[in-house]
Design brief:
This protein is mostly beta strands. It contains 1 helix and 16 strands.
Length: 185
Amino acid sequence: MKLEPGPPPTDTSPASPQVRKPKVATLIAEHMTVEGGIVGEGELHIDGVVRGDIRVGRLTIGDSGHVEGSVVAESIEIRGRMVGAVTSKQVRLHGSAYVDGDITHEQLAMEIGAFFQGRSLKFQRQPGQPAASPSPSVSQPSSSMPPPSPAPSPSMASQPGSGASTPPPGATKDGLSPGAPKPLN
């Protein structure tokens, strides 16, 4: 019979680093109303009413939940009612969700039956910018066409070499084709 060494003993002295306990979600229960802002790093589940801005790590608005204010979180799931701006990397609107406000996101998922009135703004990362601090911008449909060129400004027309005052090929300095009648002044 051969004995294998077991795991090393754990140090339980006060100087040893503490084992992190799993964070329990904070619950705002049905029939509860909170007036004012909520800020935290953990998870928040709302089945009641919150009137104020919320900034948490993860947010779930339950079927009976109602939020009036802006919301910022890493991840948001909405089953209830949200009136205000939503900013999150991941947003999921369940079939029972009602959202009236703009949603700024990296990922947005909507189930059939969800109501959303507002703008969907997708985070746009600049080259070399970390994922943790994206800057929001309006989502644009992808297109193979280049953006339209701006119209020349009056200041461009007076600059030599700008092309704005150069007559087309075959035209004279006054912009008319050879042999064309000159306009009366």
